[in-house]
Amino acid sequence: xxxxxxxxxxxxxxTIASSLYGSGNxxxxxxxxxxxxxxxxxxxxxxxxxxxxxxxxxxxxxxxxVKTFSPQADVILVEKRYEFISCPVSNLWLVDxxxxxxxxxxxxxxxxxxxxxxxxxxxxxIDKKSRILKTSEGDIAFDYLVLSPGIDYDYSKWTTDTTxxxxxKQEYPAGFIPGSEHITLKNKIHNFKxxxxxxxxxxxxxxxxxxxxxxxxxxxxxxxxxKLKAKxxxxxxxxxxxxxxxxxxxAFDELYADYLEYIPNSVIQDIDLDKKIVTTEFDEFxxxxxxxxxxxxxxxxxxxxxxxxxxxxxxEGHINALTYEVIGEENIFIAGDARPMGFSKSGNTSNxxxxxxxxxxxxxxxxxxxxxxxxxxxxxxxxxSTKPMNAIYIYTRYAFDKKDKNPKNIKxxxxxxxxxxxxxxxxxxxxxxxxxxxxxxxxxxxxYFDMFxxx
Length: 455
Ligand SMILES: Cc1cc2nc3c(=O)[nH]c(=O)nc-3n(C[C@H](O)[C@H](O)[C@H](O)COP(=O)(O)OP(=O)(O)OC[C@H]3O[C@@H](n4cnc5c(N)ncnc54)[C@H](O)[C@@H]3O)c2cc1C
Fold this sequence. Notes:
With 455 residues, this protein is of the alpha/beta class. The chain has 13 helices and 22 strands.
């Protein structure tokens, strides 16, 4: 950050305050004006500053990587949560197979180990011209900005009725953004007595393709062990299981025939929460309880900041898919599940992608050669049963495969030019399931260690 920008930041609060006072607006208390544009309470620096918005799998990986390869950078991680709760492995926590401790991690530990600053605040906007991120705790000037805010839900395919949307969020949360939604869902499962428990699989590139199928298996497994007169009804908007199809469909058929009904092509037309009836194009389902997972969209903060008119398209066409930079904005990047590229929206993808994005930023700071584009890695394990513990997995990388074979010659690449490649999977849960299940813990341990470092 050059000093002229910092001076501007200092001046801007004075200017705003004096112009408001000058306007004779006596109803506005002085304190309120001062709060409007104050600097965040972080140490001053003359070093290049990298601000990372979002301490999820993407932001944590990027903050660490930038600092590793460019120790001279002043890296600030802006995160609204006080602690990190992992979505991966959370399906096991729903049925008490792991402790909350195992999936909860410490932002302060990560910041100490990797020598960056964790700044607990909510980002609220941006002044692009002056290169300032606005947060609930003050303004932060940046030289490089990474936006990794994850996803928001998009209920518009089902309804635009805000009363219904609010009720769906509050009474039947999806459980795909960590925190209270997961706790509600866990209580629903544990308190369930009998009847249909509806889960949904959205269309589009939703967060964690296998997770709704894994969750259906785990809840059905729980009902089966408790010998409840209960059934999971899995309403899938897609025409078939979207990933690890062989493994999931054999688990549905062989393990949960009486406890799980999978219904593809289930485009929801109506949800009546009072009568507890879901109507799809072809059928009607009553339910005793449910968790409705709607479509996902790029986080709304990206719209608020003016990077897209409508982030529903996940910022398609707004990002250079090779550098992750917002088109027309130098050194402002969007990564993680908020990206438009057709990669799987997974923690492993975000973490491995974060190494590349972080390295790219570090090299720009160091004025070194920019790295070649590297494909992220999607490695994802899914539990299909808990007694015995069996799991399946998929490993995928991505490639350019259309006309533009050489990414170096491509100025801007549409995400549709990426495709899956080098896919491996292990879906024979009867043969390899227990080995895969053990690997889940090794995978999670390694990734948590990578993001947070030693305790
Ligand atoms: C049930 C479930 C199971 C899953 N299982 C797996 C799995 O087995 N393997 C796997 O690889 N992936 C899995 N995933 C997917 C994985 O959790 C996501 O892909 C991953 O979290 C995406 O990382 P991200 O950093 O882009 O977003 P997030 O992890 O959502 O992080 C975004 C962060 O930004 C913060 N934020 C947002 N807006 C603001 C703001 N305005 N100001 C400050 N902070 C803000 C949020 O608080 C959040 O911490 C699973 C997901 C779910 C829900």
